[in-house]
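Re: beginner question about structure tokens

> Can someone show what the tokenized structure looks like for a real chain? I only ever see the sequence side.

Sure, here's an example I had lying around. Input first:
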Amino acid sequence: MSSPAYSITMKHSFFSAVIFAAVLHGQANVIDLPRAPLGDGPFIFDTAEQHKIRVTVITKALDRPFGIAFLPGGDILVSERGGKLRRIRDGVLDPQPIGGVPKVNARANAGLYDFVLHPKYAQNQWIYFAFSKPGEGMLSATVLARAKLQGSSLVQVHELYSTEPGTNIGGSRLAFALDGTILMTTPAAGEVEKAQDPASAYGKILRLNDDGTIPRDNPFVGKPGYRPEIYTLGHRDHLGLVVHSSGTIFNAEHGPNGGDEVNLIKPGANYGWPVISFGRQYDGTRIPPYKEGMEIPQIVWVPSIGPSGLMFYTGDKFPAWKNNLFVGSARYGEIRGFGHLERVVLNDKFEDIRRERILDDLHQRFRDVRQGPDGNIYALTDQEVGALLRIEPAQP
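And the corresponding structure tokens:
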């Protein structure tokens, strides 16, 4: 009888042939391939650099999940794009969503986004989250809020910051910097001109104090025409954000057709969208890759991988992966059903040395990847039947 890994590999060979045929025929648009739903697992896979991994399906009863947060004591919070916050306790999904979540504009990719714990959560119990707040007509704002979890409900919910209303439907990631400020990504995929507009909060990384006020040392404070909350500008749709233990900040950003990026974030820098990109427009038109005064990516993907979710591995379960960057992927080369986790080995200057694709045999869209308190790796699949997966070493 075939092992699960062998059976999935045979399917992968078939799908690879379909992709090759599509390339030969010059199909530039995103296409879907028939794919079986995620199995029950567990799955065993070989990977490069000494690690054989076991992938366990914790739950596959999630609806388009977006972010993961680990609570002290072992519970896991998972946000669903449609506006529900779910809790997993002792490996079991609570069928009752957590109450107290504000109403969200659940349209296309808009809705409920990231959840992160305050660095001093043990003392103050604050949980921070981002969501798309409904406005007039089709408008909505990207909002940063905080709350406390009491029993099965959020309480003391406060909106700390809001962008201006817009038609953007991309997501938002959050991360705390080492100095205690909070970083927030905002999209500009639907309103590209706003990425370069210093009077707009869209297409930016914003930097705020933990109470929502603006830090005095933000790069554009006091500069006429600039919103003082802006930390960097010129971003498209960026669904990955992580702060390295050194304090260095990285984001993962979607290009158009190719040109997906991981950027090393510098205060006040302009990352170029829509003026420069290593990708092309969807009709094949080239975009200039360089312009004076604009940053080029630290890591780039051509073709696209649809990057989402970033993590530096610092645990002990996978010694050969120490300090590697993990990137979630929603698809590969404009072919849906070929998402994966990308493992990137970096040197001490954060330059990529080599890369490995992991879990592409599962044919899922990966939305987030996080290291758990147990040192294992957890990944979310962005499907209508979405799953939380645990990746751990396979026993010899």
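Each token stands for a local structural state, so reading them left to right follows the chain. The chain has one domain: 4-393.
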